[in-house]
């Protein structure tokens, strides 16, 4: 396990497999399928909402003129679509109260 400050995909799979031993061999496939579906939706520009947990969307950053920090030279920074997560009400409340 890691330092306790985050959970990796493999740790999530391990925890789910331990909690649901009858599904152990399918757990990794299920987690991968869910994450892949979420990624595909975001790539299409769709929003992903998991009720009680939160929503994933994209923030658009238009192209802009920036500066190279080493040389100070102006450079054009291309547009970007940045994934964004907004926690749902239930998640915020449970985290705030320390409830598991």
Give me the secondary-structure topology.
Blueprint: H1 9-19, H2 24-43, E1 48-50, E2 54-61, E3 64-67, E4 74-77, E5 80-87, H3 89-97
Antiparallel strand pairs: 1-2, 2-5, 3-4
Helix pairs in contact: 1-2
Structural overview:
- The two termini are 19 Å apart.
- It contains 3 helices and 5 strands.
- The protein has helices at residues 9-19, 24-43, 89-97; strands at residues 48-50, 54-61, 64-67, 74-77, 80-87.
- With 100 residues, the protein is an alpha+beta fold.
Mean pLDDT: 92
Give helix and strand order, one letter per element, not per position: HHEEEEEH
Task: Describe the oligomeric state of these chains in a short phrase.
Answer: single chain
Low-confidence stretches: none
Q: Helix- and strand-based class?
A: alpha+beta
Radius of gyration: 19 Å
The termini sit apart by 19 Å
Helix content: 40-55%
Dominant shape: elongated
How many helices in DSSP terms? 3
β-strand amount: 25-35%
Q: Please count the beta strands (DSSP E, at least 2 residues each).
A: 5
How is the largest sheet built, in terms of strand order?
A: 1-2-5
Largest sheet, in brief, is: 3 strands, antiparallel
